[in-house]
Amino acid sequence: MLYVNQKLGKVMKIYNEIIANINPILKQMGFVKMGSNFYVESNKNFGVINIQKSKESKKEVLKFTINIGVYSDVLGKLQYDYNYSIKPKLEQCQWLARIGFFMKDNPDFWWEINVSDDLNIIALNVIEIIQNIAIPEINKRINDEGLLNCWMNEAFAGTTEIGRFKYVTTLLKVKGDFHALKQVVETFMEKSKGSPSASIATDHLKNIEYYK
Question: Which value, in Å, is the radius of gyration of the alpha carbons in the chain?
Fold first, then answer.
């Protein structure tokens, strides 16, 4: 393990410096750093920006990308052993995306940085993408109404189709929009008839007491 740490020491230094350069800018925007994650809170919901280092990083080259997510307090209470004093993990976000999805022709974009590269230029590029893409996309969904709008009107769900169904039906029931809820349920059940998703959906609807 000591050998691995020595081998990747330069790469880890670059990675830490990138995060250190990002931190002051995000702090000004209300984000709080925890490890490789940055959190912003809005009415008990969280937006998350994650800087993910690739396992393919080498001795002289750092490879990393940005993941973004939104965590709904309402949905979280139903999904997890919820503790509001602990910020959610990235994988607990109900909506997740990699930054490349929102970049033209780069659905899986990764930065590759050599130890000899100018980190200031790279940090400025990362900050620009966070400001122009990551934060606006989070802000569109940071409240439950924004999440609902995303899941009901956008092709990209940031989750699985059954996940989308569970989240939409739960939020619509909490909101009391039973007309929209009925439409969503009927459309999904017709489309998934005979598939494993239909059984999962039926169990979920029982859990949220849809049939009462």
Answer: 20
Q: Which two tokens stand for residue 87?
A: 């910020």
**90-139 per-position pLDDT tens digit:** 999 999 999 999 998 777 899 999 888 888 899 999 999 999 999 999 99
Q: What is the end-to-end Cα distance of the chain in Å, rounded?
A: 57
| Cβ atoms of 211 and 175 closer than 8 Å | no
Q: Residue 4, exposed/middle/buried by CB under 10 A (0-12, 13-18, 19+)?
A: exposed
Helices (H), the chain: 2-7, 9-28, 73-79, 119-129, 135-141, 144-153, 161-175, 178-191, 196-207
Element (H, E) at 49: strand 45-53
Instruction: Please give the full DSSP string across 83-143, using - where no structure is assigned.
Output: -TTSPPPGGG-SEEEEGGGGSTT-TT--EEEETTS-HHHHHHHHHHHIIIIIHHHHHHHSS
Report d(CA 92, CA 17) in Å as an integer. 27
Where are the chain's structural domains? 2-142, 160-207
Cα dihedral 170, 172, 175, 177, rounded to 10, equals -150
Q: pLDDT tens for residues 28-50?
A: 999 999 999 999 999 999 999 99
- Determine the Cα–Cα distance for residues 75 and 144; give it in Å rounded to an integer: 9
Rounded to an integer, what distance in angstroms lies between the CA atom of residue 15 and that of residue 194?
48
